[in-house]
Write a structure and sequence with these properties.
- This protein is mostly beta strands.
- It is built from two helices and 18 strands.
- The strands form four sheets. A five-stranded mixed sheet has the order 4-1-7-8-9, with no helix packed on it.
- About 15% of the residues lie in helices and about 40% in strands.
Amino acid sequence: MMQLIKEECFMKNIAGITFFLSSFLIGELALADSIAIENKDKLNVKVMYGDTVYMKNNDERSYDARNPKEGEEWIRVVFSSSKGSEDLLDLKLRSSYGIDDAGRGCNYSLLMTEKSGWKLVGSDSGECTRSQDNYEPEAPHAHAYTVKNESEIPVYPAFSVEKDNDFSSDSVLGYLKPEESRVYSTTTGYWKNINVKDHVQVGFYNPYTTSYVKCSNELGLIDKESEFVFTKDHQCEKAK
């Protein structure tokens, strides 16, 4: 009798955990559009869907995600000088509203600097806005590194700095959800905080296996722009 009770409790626990993970995953996939911003010079930034301002700050890192509604077919991202009202960049990005094949939304990441230009990571296909690269590194090892999640699960970008395979996860902006990306350089917030200088090892933290997925076996020199993808089979590939 006691054995049956224990087995029943065990099965209830398993069912509860499965339900929790499934609910969490569904919730993670529910949001449509997103933008992650690396704003190293702490410029004034404003994010609008249509005429509505949803985010306004001068934070070094920021993130916004939402489902656009009627009248919000376009997203505007406006940067202005911290010393005045001059607009340094006014980007117009397509939202997912009215796009039939944008099931995961239009997801963007943006690296913005006052003197070295900017880099937008957008869509590679469909009607969402394409990537644009107008960034020139201001230091020898300030090349842009992009991480993308092409799987069906949320993950954390992860980096090892001082020795091989000693990863820590970037959880500051939350999970990197499916189809989302982020851009890093040695001049931006998170990499500065963990003291990335001229070498780094890239990976991803998978919360479902509670393990790190390595993109390489050791630290690598930051000597050119690079892109790393968490794939559909939960591996890491270096795209370029």
